[in-house]
Structures are given as structure tokens and as C-alpha cells.
Amino acid sequence: MELVKVLRVGVDGTDNNPADMEPLSYSTSNLVRRTGRVQAFVEASVLASGSVAELRFRRMPYNAPMGTKHQRSEANTQKGAKASVAKGGERKAWLTELETRFADAEETLGSRRRDLLRTILEHPEDTYFLSSRALAKHCKVDSATIVRTAQALGYERYADFAADLRAHFLSRITPYALMKSAARENRSIADHIDHGFELEMNNLQALRAGLVTDEVVKMAKMIERARRIMVVGVDFAAPLAQLLAYALVAVGLNAEAPIGSTGNLQQKVQLLGAKDLLIAISFGRCLQDTVDSVVCAKNNGVPTFGLTDSEQSPIARSCDHFWKASVASPSFHLSYVAPVAAINALLVCCAQLHPERSLASLQRKEQNFRQRWYTPKSPEKGVANRSKSE
User: Measured between alpha carbons, how far is 85 from 319 in angstroms, rounded to an integer?
Assistant: First the structure.
């Protein structure tokens, strides 16, 4: 049982006053609450500021398949896409919802409000968990200024602004920030290890609660129908892409995970058509090459599917369908336990949709590659004779 701070959120999705944030004893295991037609998923995440953790509530229709387009508001998708290009066509980094609102309203804001918002956006690790009064004290302004500034960005309540600020922090967190946070905690090495195991269990539980079986079957059938499947994963996500593509080939599907330079990846994506499928794997802010691949594929009419950790990530916003798998970790690297479990579920379904084909492909592989398995060499004749004489 770990003492964590939570911002209490109603099961109907409405926030309570952020000033009500208080330490509560919670087991950080995933909780699922159902009332009426709304299901709230509670997901444990590792955040900065010492040992503070936050429980993030995700709303979705009770029986809605996870990651389909009707779960995301078109307005948010359009804002994210619009914000990815600067004035004059110059490329910009993908903006969070809060950054997008600031960019849209910046010209109408006074200099003091602009400076205030820049300070908040540039240091979200110091402000994401604060109430309006605490944020005002931190920024050395009065509470009314904080509330009016949030309203100037189009937020009706401070709680809505605070929710987007937390999402902004999560999307901008870096390996350095994670490691710095972990280093500040008063934990022994053994405690850090135990904490890591606990978070990975939480990630798996959140995946199990959020990913319905029908959605797995739906995506497996989409893979089955595709002429070619291209799996894109870069950097730490590259092994995940290789795992998925290799296993799909093993059961008789035409899949690959391109490796090498950005140019090689772009050329491969350009060859895809409407009968193919692009699967993109990236988390957090997402890597540029992966997002570019999705955008390029969609422009060519290629169906796209993403594996990411938030419905607000560039991959989730850009892909036709996506699954969410938490990668929360107490260390500088992400935890891929939940993404691997999601991939394994997909592979199980792909193999079982047409077991005859899968068995035939695996049998051919076994017959053609008998020498791939390790076989101990027989001892040399002289050595064997000498052993007998001794």
C-alpha cells in the first residue's frame, strides 16, 4: 500500500475543486468503476515531484471499443493537426491541447499573461499538481489572475485547465525528469525495484481492463485482410516492431519492420497502398519518423493502426485506430510490459483465426530450418578412446 496524492474526479467525469487534493492511502492497483453507461478507468502513473503519484481518470462509453475514432473529439484531432504546422508552412513540434490554446490566443493576451503562461508551460513539473491558489502563490500573482488567464484560453473552469496542464506534463516528461524524480525519492535500491514491479503490474491491469476482446479480434481481422503489413517502431520501440513483424511472418502473413535510415523508412511507406496496413508504435511525445510515416500513409489512403500510451498522443490522433498501453516506469526508460502483452494478444488472435494456415507455415519453417537449433557436437574419436582407457 503506497501513500499517493490524487485529484478526486467524479465517476461521471466531473472534477472536484483542485484545492481538495489530499493524500489518501490507495493500493496502486488498477481500479475500474462502472455506473450507468460510463466507465472510468483509473491508471497509476509515475510523475515527478518526489514520491507523488497521480491517478488519471479516463472516460469512455461503457461498451465502446477502445481506440476507435468516435472516442476522440474531432475538434481535438483538428487542433493537433493544425498545430503541427507553423505560420508560412514551417514545421513545428506537435503541440499539446494547452499549447494549442495558448498559440491560438497568444496575440490577444497581454504581456503579463503571456509570460505567466510561458512559465507554467515551460516548468509543468512544478505546477501540474497545484490548485489555483497554490499556483497563484507559486507564480506570485493572485488567484483571480490565474482563473482569468485560464478563461482567456477558453476554459470555463480552472479544473479543466488543470487537467490539460497535467496532460501537458505527461506528454513532455523526459528520461532525465523521470530519473531526477526517482533520485529525489527516499527509497532504497530494493524499494526502487519493488516499485518498478508494482508499476508494471498496474500497467498490465490497466491494459486488461481497457482492451476488450472484440477489439483484438477486429484488429486481427484487419491484419488478415491486408496485402502487406508494415510495422514502424524507432529507437526503444524498434524491438517491439521487430517482434510483431517477425511473428506475423511466422504464421504466414506478409509483414516487415523496416530498419535503417529515415530515407529507407520513407521509401518503404511510399510503396504502401489502400490494401495494405501500417502499424505505428510510439509513446509519449512520439518520435518524428514514426508520426511522419503515419501521416504519409494516410495521405496515400493506407489504413493505419497505432500502439501508444495516451489518446492525446500524436499517434492516437493520427491513426485510424489505436490501442492504449501504459508505459509508466519509475526509471529513465519506459516499461514495455503492457505493450508486449498487447502485441502477444494480437498475435494469439492472428494465429487462431486461421489455425490451418498458421500450422502449415510453422511446419514449413521447422522443416526448412532444422539446423537452426543447437545440437551438442559429438566428442572426437581420440578423446572418446582416451576416456575409455582411463
Answer: 18
141 DSSP assignment: S
Which stretches of the chain score pLDDT less than 70?
Answer: 1-94, 177, 181, 184, 380-390
pTM summary value: 0.64
Nine cell digits for residue 280: 505505428
pLDDT, position 386? 58
Task: Write down the pLDDT at residue 390.
Answer: 59
Domain CATH code at residue 150: 1.10.10.10
The verdict on 148 and 252 lying in the same domain is: no
DSSP structural state of residue 15: B
158 shares its domain with 120:
yes
Q: How many domains does the chain have?
A: 2
CB 199 within 8 A of CB 329: yes
Same domain, 207 and 336: yes
- 175 Cβ neighbours under 8 A, 6+ residues apart: 332, 333
Q: 225: which residues sit within 8 A by CB, 6+ positions away?
A: none
Helices (H) and strands (E) in the chain, counts: 16, 10
Residues 6+ apart with CB under 8 A from 388: none
Q: How would DSSP label each residue in 258-318?
A: --S-HHHHHHHHHT--TTSEEEEE--TT--HHHHHHHHHHHHTT--EEEEES-TTSHHHHH
Selection from 120, 75, 119 nearest residue 97 by Cα: 75
Q: Do 213 and 354 fall within a single domain?
A: yes
Q: What is the average pLDDT value for the chain, to the nearest integer?
A: 77
Is 275 found in the same domain as 151? no
Sign of torsion over alpha carbons 240, 246, 250, 252: positive
Domain of 92 in residue numbering reads as 73-177
Q: Which CATH number does the domain housing residue 316 bear?
A: 3.40.50.10490
Q: In the chain, helix, strand, coil percent, each to 5?
A: 55, 15, 30
283: left (phi over 0), alpha (psi -120 to 50) or beta: beta
Q: Is residue 120 within 8 Å of residue 134, measured between CB atoms?
A: no
Give bridge partners of residue 307 from the DSSP assignment. 281, 323
Compute the distance between CA of residue 189 and CA of residue 105 in angstroms, rounded to an integer.
46
Same domain for 144 and 234? Answer: no
